């Protein structure tokens, strides 16, 4: 009885740890950009594409890419193993750790290069073989400046064709077979015949679901977030990819130019002449001091170093450029004119 209570308690603790880990970071499925019900072939193809993209040989000196490659390899090692995947689906990473600690599963696992070599032979950067592929779907995604500065995510409703079983059979996996036909003594003619198999029939049905697009800090306009094999499907082939192309959405305070931010601030003529204290609210709600004790000329631009956008895959930041517009009075009294002449004349 005590053993059953202990087992139940361990199960509840594992479930709680799994829930917390899911909240804290990306799941292995998110890392490989595949759905939870992905087939083994989908997982393999997703790994191949991501491993080629983030391999250290293609990203020398890029620590973030190296970390991505390690995460991709770790996710693939778990999801490609049916036993580990089942434990992960039920109990998360803590369940895997407990399983390994108890001596279960394969000891030691594989390192990143071992996994990569399985696909590309000794670590050679081969490109993926050509197979029939459906159309890619490209979606222009307006990302807020806040998400591009801090990192964030956007939920997008997606509708696409899904292949479903249908009554009947169809010709599939057709190929040309070459044979030789004798047409006379010692004479043969080469012939080609198309040979097909009989496969279950399929049909297209339209389905909709939400896709969560992760916006990384410092992403530039034109960069893409790719969901492999989530584009248009094709019969007897691989579905195309779904690509979200990043586009910076307009902002009420800042304008983005590459890694730099630009802002326009209006000050009074008095402030322009005698100086002023002023702050501007940044994208992370931090207040940046842009005041001065000196004179500010109309249209003057001041640079605030390191207050721009973060660089993608880097700890560095661009700069903030503030242009000052001076608000002149619309009219002056004679007395005011006399006083100004006395002070400035």
UniProtKB/TrEMBL annotation:
Residues annotated as domain J: 27-92
Protein keywords: Chaperone, Endoplasmic reticulum, Signal
Compartment(s) of residence: Endoplasmic reticulum
PROSITE patterns the record matches: DNAJ_1, DNAJ_2
Family annotation (Pfam families): DnaJ, DnaJ_C
GO cellular component: endoplasmic reticulum lumen
GO molecular function, one term: unfolded protein binding
Signal sequence, start to end: 1-24
Protein origin, superkingdom: Eukaryota
Major localization listed first in the record, in broad terms: endoplasmic reticulum
Entry annotated with the keyword Protein transport: no
GO biological process, one term: protein folding
Protein name as it appears in the record: DnaJ protein ERDJ3B
């Amino acid at each position: 009885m005590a053993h059953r209570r202990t087992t139940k308690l361990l199960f509840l603790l594992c479930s709680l740890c799994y829930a917390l880990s899911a909240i804290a970071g990306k799941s292995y499925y998110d890392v490989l950009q595949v759905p939870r019900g992905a087939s083994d072939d989908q997982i393999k193809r997703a790994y191949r594409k991501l491993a080629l993209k983030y391999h250290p040989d293609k990203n020398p000196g890029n620590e973030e890419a190296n970390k991505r490659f390690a995460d991709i390899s770790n996710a693939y090692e778990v999801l490609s193993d049916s036993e580990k995947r089942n434990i992960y689906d039920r109990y998360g990473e803590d369940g895997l750790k407990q399983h390994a600690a108890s001596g279960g599963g394969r000891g030691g696992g594989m390192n990143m290069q071992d996994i990569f070599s399985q696909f590309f032979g000794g670590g050679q950067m081969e490109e993926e073989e050509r197979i029939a592929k459906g159309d890619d779907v490209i979606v222009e995604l307006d990302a807020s400046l806040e998400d591009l500065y801090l990192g964030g995510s956007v939920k997008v409703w997606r509708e696409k064709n899904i292949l479903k079983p249908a009554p009947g059979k169809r010709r599939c996996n057709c190929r040309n077979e070459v044979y030789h036909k004798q047409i006379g003594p010692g004479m043969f003619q080469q012939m080609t015949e198309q040979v097909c198999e009989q496969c279950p029939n399929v049909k297209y049905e339209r389905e909709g679901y939400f896709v969560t697009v992760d916006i990384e800090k410092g992403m530039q306009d034109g960069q893409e977030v790719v969901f492999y094999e989530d584009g248009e499907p094709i019969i007897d082939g691989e579905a195309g990819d779904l690509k979200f192309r990043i586009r910076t959405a307009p902002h009420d305070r800042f304008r983005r130019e590459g890694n730099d931010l630009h802002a326009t601030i209006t000050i009074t003529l008095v402030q322009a002449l005698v100086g002023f204290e002023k702050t501007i609210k940044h994208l992370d709600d931090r207040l940046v001091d842009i005041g001065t004790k000196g004179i500010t000329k109309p249209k003057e631009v001041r640079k605030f170093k390191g207050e721009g956008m973060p660089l993608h895959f880097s700890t560095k930041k661009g700069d903030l450029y503030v242009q000052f517009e001076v608000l002149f009075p619309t009219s002056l009294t004679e007395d005011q004119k006399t006083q100004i002449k006395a002070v400035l004349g």
